[in-house]
Design a protein that fits this description.
Number of domains: 2
Shape: globular
Pfam families: Hydrolase
CATH superfamily of the largest domain: HAD superfamily/HAD-like
GO biological process, one term: DNA repair
GO molecular function: phosphoglycolate phosphatase activity
CATH architecture of the largest domain: 3-Layer(aba) Sandwich
Keywords: Hydrolase
Oligomer: single chain
Protein name: HAD hydrolase-like protein
C-alpha cells in the first residue's frame, strides 16, 4: 500500500474518535453496576468510570478484567449484556454526542471520493447503532467490529476489511495504541486523534500525524492531496 497522495479509503475507530463516549458511558456505567449489585453478582464498591473509559479500545473480555478484576466470569458476562442494552437505550433517548465537526468533515471526505469505514473492537450492534442513531451511517461503506468478526486484534479486523473491499491505499484514524498498531501492521498511514481525554501516556506513539480536533483531518488530507 502507498502512503502518498489522497487515500482511497479512511478507516475510523469509533469511541474517542468519532463518538465522545464519556457523554454516554457515565450514565451507562452507573446503571450497569446498579443492576449487578441488585442481582448479587458484584458486591464490591463501584469502580470509577474513568477506569472503563481508559479501557476503551480493548476487547470486551479484557475491559472487564481491568475494570473489575475481582469480578466473577458470570459478572463479566452479565456486564457485557447490560453494557450493550443500556448503551442502546440511552442512545435512543438522545444521550451521547459525536465530536464537533464529525458529520461535516465526513461529508467533505466523501465529496473528495474517499471511501469511509468504521473499524472498532466493540460489539456489532453498538458499532452500527451509534452512527445510525447519530445520523452519519449513510456516509460509511461498511462497519467492522470485533463483535461481528470475532477478531482478537484490531490489526486482524482491519486486514479483513481491506481484503473484503479491495482497498489498496488507506488511512487509519483513531485514538488508541491498537489503532496505531492496526494501521502499521497493515501498511497504512496512521492519524492519531489527540483530543479524547481518557488516553494513556504514549498511546499514540508511532502515529504518522496527530490531529487536535476532528475537523483537522480534512485539512490534513487536503495538504497531502
Amino acid at each position: 500500500m502507498t502512503n502518498a497522495g489522497l487515500p482511497e479509503a479512511v478507516l475510523f475507530d469509533l469511541d474517542g474518535t468519532l463518538f465522545r463516549t464519556e457523554t454516554l458511558l457515565e450514565t451507562v456505567h452507573r446503571r450497569v453496576f446498579e443492576t449487578l449489585r441488585e442481582e448479587g453478582l458484584y458486591t464490591s464498591e463501584e469502580p470509577p468510570v474513568e477506569r472503563l473509559l481508559g479501557s476503551l479500545g480493548m476487547l470486551l473480555e479484557h475491559i472487564w478484567q481491568r475494570v473489575m478484576p475481582d469480578g466473577s466470569p458470570e459478572a463479566h458476562e452479565r456486564a457485557n449484556e447490560l453494557l450493550l442494552r443500556y448503551e442502546i437505550e440511552e442512545l435512543e433517548k438522545g444521550i451521547g454526542e459525536l465530536y464537533p465537526g464529525v458529520p461535516e468533515t465526513l461529508r467533505k471526505l466523501r465529496e473528495r471520493g474517499i471511501r469511509l469505514f468504521v473499524a472498532s473492537n466493540g460489539l456489532e450492534q453498538y458499532v452500527k447503532e451509534v452512527p445510525r442513531l447519530r445520523g452519519i451511517a449513510d456516509l460509511f461503506e461498511g462497519f467492522y467490529s470485533a463483535g461481528e468478526y470475532a477478531t482478537q486484534t484490531k490489526a486482524e479486523l482491519v486486514r479483513i476489511l481491506l481484503e473484503k473491499h479491495g482497498v489498496r491505499s488507506a488511512w487509519m484514524v483513531g485514538d488508541r495504541s491498537s489503532d496505531v498498531e492496526a494501521g502499521k501492521q497493515n501498511g497504512l498511514f496512521v492519524v492519531g486523534c489527540d483530543y479524547a481525554g481518557f488516553r494513556r501516556e504514549g498511546e499514540l506513539d508511532g502515529a504518522d500525524a496527530l490531529i487536535g480536533s476532528f475537523a483537522d483531518l480534512e485539512q490534513l488530507i487536503a495538504q497531502r492531496a
